[in-house]
């Protein structure tokens, strides 16, 4: 690639920053460039197939820089596309340098024209004159994406020897072993990559995936926490971490991450429902009830009943029987003949030894649903208790 013929894609949502980068590239002699306002638009442009270098902001709406990079690296056609990440320097220091080992270089805001020139020259030079390490990595990625795993293993092992302080070969070795069903070697290599790049997002997420599959919630929470420390504004990670904490019994921590997820969800209905389910799973009934009333409650009676019934079940599991009864009764005000809610209320009354009331609700349910087997079984148990009492 000759300098003036290099086609550079600027991905930046801030208009003034985008214009500044355009001006710098023109001044440096790069007249072939395109722009995109976020990762999603950039991906559409990249698929046209004529981009030589991506110059990409980190924080953007719809699809951020990390998400775009991961998409590029996982695609056969563009896996080797040079990628320069633009980010603001902050108090975390070298955070962006090490956050993602597959970034070729980082450009710190505000951009310096000499640094920009140097970085673009470097990525172009690497394309034209690759080192033995670069060749091994590129070849390994190609073989991996084409599922030639044995040959890919050889390439990445060669890359690890050519550059002993690179995390990338071990990360890909982990991915290959994962595909081959060798979980222990996959885990070992992901951890090796993290010894070199402790904030390597892809490796952290890969380990989290392993522990999720193994239902090892302690380790899952540990690695998702590391991801959250690096990327504090990622909804899915907070939700996953909250669920892992719930499974380990750390409810205070689960609530903390659910609260964070709620803030990130804003008014996204699907995400709000995930937070609601997380609160319910964690037994945080009051928080779920409050969020439902504030964000979701509408004229859809069936959805409201479904949610209130879940709150009733969770309250019962928490042994808060009065609250459970309140939620069931709230459902029946909306639909007095609801089969499942009447049964759940009857079961609760049975537990509270209120046998006459339980019998009354069960008889009403069976008049409406005579084939409801569970209700038949429960009324039989209720009537046995009533017979003993008399």
Topology of helices and strands:
Layout: E1 8-11, H1 15-28, E2 33-36, H2 39-46, E3 53-57, H3 65-73, E4 83-88, H4 95-98, E5 105-109, H5 113-128, H6 132-145, H7 149-162, H8 168-179, H9 183-196, H10 201-213, H11 217-230, H12 235-248, H13 251-265, H14 269-281, H15 285-296, H16 301-317, H17 321-334, H18 339-351, H19 355-368, H20 373-389
Parallel strand pairs: 1-2, 1-3, 3-4, 4-5
Helix pairs in contact: 2-3, 6-7, 6-8, 7-8, 8-9, 9-10, 10-11, 11-12, 12-13, 12-14, 13-14, 14-15, 15-16, 16-17, 17-18, 18-19, 18-20, 19-20
Task: Estimate what percentage of residues fall within beta strands.
Answer: 5-15%
Mean pLDDT: 89
- Count every beta strand, where a strand is a DSSP E run of 2 or more residues: 5
The largest sheet is: 5 strands, parallel
CATH fold assignment of the largest domain: Rossmann fold
Order of adjacent strands in the largest pleated sheet = 2-1-3-4-5
What would you call the shape? elongated
H-E order = EHEHEHEHEHHHHHHHHHHHHHHHH
Number of helices, counting only DSSP H or I runs of 4 residues or more:
20
CATH superfamily of the largest domain: Response regulator
Low-confidence stretches: 91-98
Q: Structural class per helix/strand content?
A: alpha/beta
**CATH class designation of the largest domain:** Alpha Beta
Detailed description of the structure:
With 390 residues, the chain is α/β, with parallel strands linked by helices. It has four domains: 3-129, Rossmann fold (3-Layer(aba) Sandwich), CATH 3.40.50; 130-214, Serine Threonine Protein Phosphatase 5, Tetratricopeptide repeat (Alpha Horseshoe), CATH 1.25.40; 224-296, Serine Threonine Protein Phosphatase 5, Tetratricopeptide repeat, CATH 1.25.40.10; 298-390, Serine Threonine Protein Phosphatase 5, Tetratricopeptide repeat (Alpha Horseshoe), CATH 1.25.40. The chain has 20 helices and five strands. It has helices at residues 15-28, 39-46, 65-73, 95-98, 113-128, 132-145, 149-162, 168-179, 183-196, 201-213, 217-230, 235-248, 251-265, 269-281, 285-296, 301-317, 321-334, 339-351, 355-368, 373-389, and strands at residues 8-11, 33-36, 53-57, 83-88, 105-109. Strands 2-1-3-4-5 form a five-stranded parallel beta sheet, with helices on both faces. Strand 3 (53-57), helix 3 (65-73) and strand 4 (83-88) form a beta-alpha-beta unit. The protein is elongated, with a radius of gyration of 28 Å.
